[in-house]
Design a protein that fits this description.
Length: 348
């Protein structure tokens, strides 16, 4: 209990002023928690403000077109979060009359809501004593209690959740949860934690045993897969191009992209022109030029995309075309968004 009180005392003096902390509205808390998964607060904050301005209520979000939602989400990554967000908004609006479930177990049933998000909403909005466990919490607990169990192992996930639930201040669970998360983000940081001025320093096992840099422990990372992307950027005499929706269950589902040739290694122009997709798209003579002189390496969590953008000037395309103005309105991956900004800037 002393641990919780020390954290809450620190938090009340050092907490960040964030818009979703000024309310117990489950819609806004849910929105912020989904956005902040795998995302820093500084990056997520502008998106939260844009979303709440565009969709003030869960009904507004439910009525929106998915393309609009994905466009506003563009740049946040992990786009399945946006699709799940939209799905859940429609479910809450249409099936639950706009009222979010009021406890941890029922919140867990919502699509895209896992243990962490359900715990956050239940504790902050409904004062239910369920502990949040995110990267910040893992770090604080592993260091303070000297726990070397890998935080990404089945055993570790269970062990840390059970420990966290024994430490929560049941009289103010939402405040405690936000306190330990902020403490991990601002004070007990991954690199250069502020141990010299830490309110928990006299009882921190990692500090006492000189293991602050060794904790928390993570199991070996998944091997990074390399993929080779070649985007074909058609350009017609009337300045139109081709953009198509990315289908399937892989990365960027529902976003838009230029026609893509994925190769087993870096491809040159000759190899590209000989592909089936190129022949199918361009029945007449073309002029092909590589836009990015240096290969782009776009890094995702488990894969690196070695990418080239090939500008293909042609008089005929066997595909529906669209104007560049329409292209700019479509939700696209950051990789393509960066290309568009550079390409359109050069063309203007």
């Amino acid at each position: 209990m002393i641990f919780a009180k020390q954290l809450i005392y620190w938090y009340l003096q050092n907490k960040r002023e964030l818009p979703w902390r000024k309310t117990k509205d489950p819609y806004r808390v849910w929105l912020s928690e989904i956005m902040l998964q795998q995302t820093r607060v500084a990056q997520g904050l502008p998106y939260f403000l844009t979303f709440t301005e565009s969709f003030p209520t869960v009904f507004d979000l439910a009525k929106a077109d998915e393309v609009e939602v994905l466009k506003l989400w563009q740049g946040l990554g992990y786009y399945s979060r946006a699709r799940n967000l939209h799905f859940t908004a429609k479910y809450v609006a249409e099936e639950l009359n706009g009222v979010f479930p009021k406890n941890y177990k029922e919140l867990l049933q919502l699509k895209g809501v896992g243990d962490y998000t359900a715990s956050a909403i239940a504790s902050i909005c409904y004062d239910e004593a369920v502990a949040v466990v995110d990267g910040n919490v893992y770090r604080v607990l592993s260091r303070y209690f000297g726990i070397a169990t890998p935080i990404n192992s089945t055993k570790g996930i269970k062990e840390f959740k059970e420990l966290a639930n024994t430490l929560i201040d049941a009289s103010q669970p939402g405040v405690y949860n936000q306190a330990i998360m902020d403490f991990g983000a601002l004070h007990c940081k991954p690199q250069n934690p502020l141990c010299d001025e830490c309110p928990l320093s006299t009882s921190c096992i990692a500090l006492a045993t000189n293991k602050v840099k060794e904790l928390p422990v993570k199991e070996k990372k998944i091997k990074i897969k390399k993929r080779y992307f070649n985007y074909l950027v058609p350009v017609t005499p009337d300045n139109k191009t081709v953009l198509e929706e990315r289908t399937g269950k892989g990365i960027w589902q529902g976003l838009y992209q230029f026609p893509l040739v994925e190769s087993k290694k870096e491809a040159n122009e000759k190899e590209l022109v000989e592909t089936e997709l190129f022949s199918k798209l361009f029945p007449e003579e073309t002029t092909v030029s590589l836009f990015n002189k240096e290969t782009i390496v776009h890094k995702l969590s488990h894969q690196h995309l070695i990418t080239k953008f090939w500008v293909v000037k042609t008089t005929k395309i066997n595909e529906l075309t669209m104007s560049w103005k329409t292209v700019k309105e479509q939700p696209v991956p950051v990789l393509i968004d960066k290309f568009l900004k550079e390409y359109l800037n050069e063309e203007s």
